[in-house]
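F.,

This is the one I mentioned.
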């Protein structure tokens, strides 16, 4: 063990300057994120875009860690017979353990430790930090594997870079050779088999790299290692061309998604007095779309009886269609948000008393269905089920915000700051800087939830800002002038500039004295919402009819 640690210390000493440079690159990237979050908002879009490009450049430089991999491995060459370590009582297995420990420290532990203050400063909890660290390690592992593959079979940077460049050229070239094969043979690969092929290809690539690395450390048989690489490439090509089996990966993923449906759909019934009624439906295609392209099934429904102090917000929905002949179709639906939330916020900021219950809200559920299903539905009615998860929302607070740059506010791991406020003519321009987690696991689960209707998607519940003019009984949600998002260290940073008016905007577009005066007497109001409860509702009909509009 002491000899293994001695090798690790020797590697770290030899690479101390490249490692420090790499740490500096990571710190610079995160420092750009700090600059974005703390800027006063007067810099403008060009400044933000320049910083975003610089951050992407730093991230790209960070990804060249596979070059450091060559430096680390080449400290004790595995090619040739002149390496110093071979004259010492060091086995290939011990050297492999030492190199793996060095790799773990340099490429996994250091980036996580350097990024930890950034994650904590952005309000990450233990879950978010754990997933952010796992994502960082996984991303670094991709480049580590590529670097390891070529570092163990080369004896210098020139050959290492040559083989790495050859791989970069070979991957799209092989893909270009495979694609014409399917065109010429008119081969049809089902999505299930295609998913299985991709899974097997990734597994073969990882296994092949691991085999080459272990074999070279333990035996130093160069040509045998080259043969392993060639065999792995051949197996990958054959898998991409001819793998015939479905490993049930898609089916297992679907089963897992459906299990989440049962676990996450709320069991609470709709509030008393609330009535949801299914309406008519129609079919539509994008302008100019061919008849064999998927169509939209648009189903109307109405919500009645919602208390005036509440609003109904649809989160996710799934649908199913069925015919007596056994034909069926199911998937997710996009449900247009009800108007009640907008009306509730407007009443609240204007200090008005809403009606006892909203008269009604007309809404729409849109489903994308295959062309054959649309044709079948146009020819004969089908049973239709639409299951929607709703949240019952209330206004938690509506507070006046000074028309000046404000302090940073945080709601858990979501943060925002009023960076800049400026009156320009008859409009108020407000720049908001917001940050939130941008984790791959959240994207994956959010996509799964949305596809399977298993729960609400990963939405970010930031407060809403309205400009309110009580003298004119007017409120404005603002018009977005520009927005941009940058992802730095698993954190999304959003810059958004919104223009508000205190009266209805003149049709001519030129400021008027009346509008400028109205702006001076208006106030900016921040509205935060709270979900009081959630429930699931299932719309059903045994005879849904829909047709394409007549030309």
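My design for it:
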């Amino acid at each position: 063990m002491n000899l293994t640690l001695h090798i690790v210390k020797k590697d770290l000493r030899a690479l101390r300057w490249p490692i420090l440079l790499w740490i500096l690159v990571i710190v610079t990237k995160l420092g750009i994120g700090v600059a974005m979050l703390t800027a006063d908002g007067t810099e403008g879009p060009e400044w933000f875009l320049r910083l975003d490009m610089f951050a992407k450049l730093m991230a790209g430089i960070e990804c060249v860690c596979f070059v450091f991999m060559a430096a680390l491995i080449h400290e004790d060459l595995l090619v040739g017979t002149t390496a110093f370590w071979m004259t010492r009582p060091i086995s290939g297995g011990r050297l492999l353990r030492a190199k793996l420990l060095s790799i773990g420290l340099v490429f996994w532990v250091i980036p996580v430790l350097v990024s930890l203050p950034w994650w904590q400063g952005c309000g990450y909890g233990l879950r978010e930090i754990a997933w952010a660290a796992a994502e960082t390690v996984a991303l670094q592992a991709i480049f580590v594997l590529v670097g390891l593959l070529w570092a163990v079979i080369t004896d210098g940077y020139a050959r290492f870079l040559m083989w790495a460049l050859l791989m970069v050229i070979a991957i799209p070239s092989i893909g270009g050779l495979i694609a014409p094969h399917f065109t010429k043979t008119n081969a049809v690969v089902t999505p299930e088999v295609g998913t299985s092929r991709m899974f097997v290809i990734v597994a073969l690539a990882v296994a092949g790299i691991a085999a080459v690395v272990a074999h070279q450390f333990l035996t130093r048989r160069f040509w045998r290692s080259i043969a392993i690489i060639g065999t792995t490439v051949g197996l990958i090509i054959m898998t991409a061309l001819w793998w015939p089996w479905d490993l049930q990966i898609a089916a297992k993923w679907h089963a897992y998604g459906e299990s989440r449906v049962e676990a996450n759909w709320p069991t609470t019934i709709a509030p008393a007095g609330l009535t949801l009624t299914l309406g008519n439906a129609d079919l539509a295609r994008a302008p100019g779309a061919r008849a064999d392209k998927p169509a939209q099934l648009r189903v109307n429904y109405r919500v009645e009886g919602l208390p005036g102090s509440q609003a109904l917000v649809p989160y996710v929905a799934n649908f199913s269609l069925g015919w007596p002949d056994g034909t069926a179709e199911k998937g997710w639906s996009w449900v247009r948000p009800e108007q009640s939330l907008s009306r509730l916020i407007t009443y609240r900021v204007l200090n008005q008393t809403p009606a006892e219950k909203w008269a009604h809200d007309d809404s729409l559920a849109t489903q994308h269905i295959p062309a054959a299903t649309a044709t079948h539905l146009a020819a004969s009615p089908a049973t239709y089920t639409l299951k929607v998860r709703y949240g019952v929302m209330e206004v938690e607070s509506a507070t006046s915000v000074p028309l000046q740059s404000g302090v940073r506010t945080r709601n858990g791991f979501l943060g925002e700051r009023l960076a800049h406020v400026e009156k320009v003519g008859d409009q108020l321009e407000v720049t908001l800087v917001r940050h939130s987690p941008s984790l791959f696991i959240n994207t994956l689960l959010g996509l799964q939830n949305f596809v399977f209707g298993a729960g609400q998607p990963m939405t970010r519940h930031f407060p809403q800002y309205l400009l309110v003019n009580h003298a004119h009984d007017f409120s404005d949600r603002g018009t977005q002038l520009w927005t941009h998002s940058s992802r730095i260290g698993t954190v999304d940073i959003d810059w958004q500039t919104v223009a508000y008016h205190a009266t209805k905007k003149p049709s001519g577009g030129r400021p008027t004295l009346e509008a400028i005066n109205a702006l001076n007497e208006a106030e900016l109001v921040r509205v935060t919402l709270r979900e009081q409860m959630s429930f699931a509702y299932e719309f059903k009909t045994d005879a849904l009819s829909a047709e394409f509009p007549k030309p």
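Residues 2-156 form one domain.

Talk soon.
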